[in-house]
Write a structure and sequence with these properties.
The protein is α/β, with parallel strands linked by helices and 503 residues long. It has eleven helices and 25 strands. The two termini are 37 Å apart. Bound molecules: alpha-L-arabinofuranose.
Amino acid sequence: MPNAQLTVDPAFRVGPADRQLFGSFVEHMGRCVYGGVYEPGHPSADPRGLRRDVLDLTREMGVSVVRYPGGNFVSGYRWEDGVGPVGDRPRRLDLAWKTIETNAFGLDEFMTWAAEAGVEPMMAVNLGTRGVAEACDLLEYANHPGGTQLSDLRRKHGAEQPYGVRLWCLGNEMDGPWQVGHKTADEYGRLAAETARAMKMIDPSISLIASGSSNRQMSTYASWEATVLEHTYEHVDYISAHTYYDPSDGDRASILASAVDMDAFITEVTATADHVGAKLRQKRKLKISFDEWNVWYQSRLQADLDRRGWVEAPALIEDDFTAVDAVVVGDLLITLLRHADRVGVACQAQLANVIAPIRTRTGGPAWRQSIFHPFALTARYARGTVLRTEPVGPTYETSRYGDVPVLDTVAVHDEETGGLAVFAVNRGPDDVPLEMDLRGLPGLHAQAHTTVAAGADPAATNTETDPERVTPRELTTPTLDGGRCTVALPATSWNLLRFAPQS
Ligand code: AHR
């Protein structure tokens, strides 16, 4: 088999590698909040109950934006329950996850956590059981400087300065029949448009996200986006997309090709948004907020919910991610970067415990799951301008997506430092030698080749007792000769190749 080939050229510019692509998600679900980011009495907790070990890992991961408080949870949530003296806060039924919500953690605690974590907060308003008024109240509480009942209430609760939350989701997965307050596209579109209009009267500087399809398999997919955007286009800045890839059936070839589906999803939602924009004679192009994406062993959830009654913070969907899952996550990040011109925000779901890169034991340690590593390395090194790459190489057959390329790649060129990062996934079961042609960026030398590979044990996971089983490995650095080099991409691996200017 001939070697695979890849040319990197600064002429093939996609757009800036926006930091907002490295977002995450904290939902009141399972132990993401309680026992995850927040656990008063934990040995590492600060006086406000924020787990410092989780904060440290969040910073290490390079998370930029965090969406809150849901998710399905937000569609039944009353934000006022979560502010003010903790002892006065009501206990409520959370219908989304059949859970008792104590409301010990709410908006003000989240904003404190976000500031400590160094992340930008991204809020969702409830458009399931609530509407325009409550969304406006929440925005006034959060962003209005003072002199009104709600802004002064925030100040009374200790936040003198407005939070200045910039990103707001208009509801969550409103196309899903599972959603509390589920709506048709017309019902949701009208409500979202009116909520958006009113919210922008309060704070014109905010960016709004209309709720798109919950996944590409929804029967209303694409027509949902078209109808919702006919109502909302002129009032919003983004349309959301969500997707999860389920490895439960053991079809490794297909799960490794999940990025093929995400790629098509982005292309289709962009086309739908542009179609509506053209129809409405709008010059402004909308972007996608891919505000939920990940690998998720989803088929395990229902049994979990059916088995039990109403409890506080149950362990929910605490998937143990394998080395193969890490390769898939790395590839999904490559896909998001490749569409950096049209994907403006992306949030991996979720941050802690719930299908999460960070796992904790209540009262015990926190550790990095396998999927932590490609995220952290991509967030760290994807700085500058995304360059489109078209690898030439073999393909392989999958039952879900047909014939797909074995290799997936993207490059990011940092014009300030002159450095180049090439991200490459080998989805196949064999090592692939990749000939790289970097003559378009003269004067570079190879700095490092880091890999997260399935190796001898593709099902390996990181656990509390063995938290370092799946970690990045450094491979021999290739030698650039006349702007060309050949690197061996290990079987089923995610790779980061770094190049720097000759000093
Ligand atoms: O992230 C878990 C859930 O998945 C979210 O609450 C919901 O929006 C999606 O269906």
